[in-house]
Amino acid sequence: MRVRKKKNGAVRFEAASDVITDIPKKEPFEYIVTEKVGEYDKYCLEIGCGKGSFSTEIARRNPNKGFVAMELVKDVIIFAAEKAKAAELPNLKFICSDAAVINDIFPNKTFDTIYINFCDPWPKARHAKRRLTYHDFLEKFKLILKDDGKIEFKTDNRDLFDFSLPEFEMAGYVLSDVCYDLHNSEYMKENIMTEYEKNFSQKGFAINRLVARKK
Question: What mean pLDDT value characterizes the chain?
Fold first, then answer.
């Protein structure tokens, strides 16, 4: 879906530059989380943070962890950064970049947890390689996870979820907590909803969820 260009977008982006790092597509760049976010025992990454409800809330609940939230679209990440600044969260920073170059951005074994929430399902078969849960992407993510790291994945798209299960296994992950109706499960107690999740769950869509750990 095309995002409308925001009024004063460049000005707003610049105003949030203390919490956003803009990384042009395919430009090598090393992002050291201890320098950008601060010293924490654990670090977490959200890929595709949208308007930032999830990243802001999880950082608020876990002040002892460092969080990085990635989003490709500048006119979307502005909202996320403004939310985080308003909430005064020193443990949360943002990156405007493409996940395809993620291994140029982060050193290996940086993150304890990666969150993938409601990514684009790319429903046409010829676009399967663009899905964030395609095994080539999952191999990239595995490199920046610590040895005991994990991915937490949520989607309302059952076809994408079913596609993703063997992709995780192919990429060398062990699956657990596989759930086809998150909001009516034992895992809902700790769940933090995204803007998208709130909207589509209210419309009756079941939310699928899993945890994938490095072998």
Answer: 94
Q: For position 6, what pLDDT does the model report?
A: 62
Token couple for 215: 């072998």
CA atoms within a 13 Å half-sphere pointing along the CA-CB vector of 2: 2
Q: Which of 75, 104, 120, 177 is catalytic?
A: 120
Distance CA 215, CA 23 (A): 31
Paired residues of 45 in beta bridges: 68, 114
CB neighbour list of residue 70: distance below 8 Å, 6 or more residues apart: 45, 46, 47, 48, 49, 94, 95, 96, 97, 99, 102
Token digits of residue 81: 């950064």
Q: What is the pLDDT of residue 24?
A: 78
CA distance between the termini of the chain: 36
Active site residue 120: yes
Using CA atoms, how far apart are residues 166 and 171, in angstroms rounded to an integer? 9
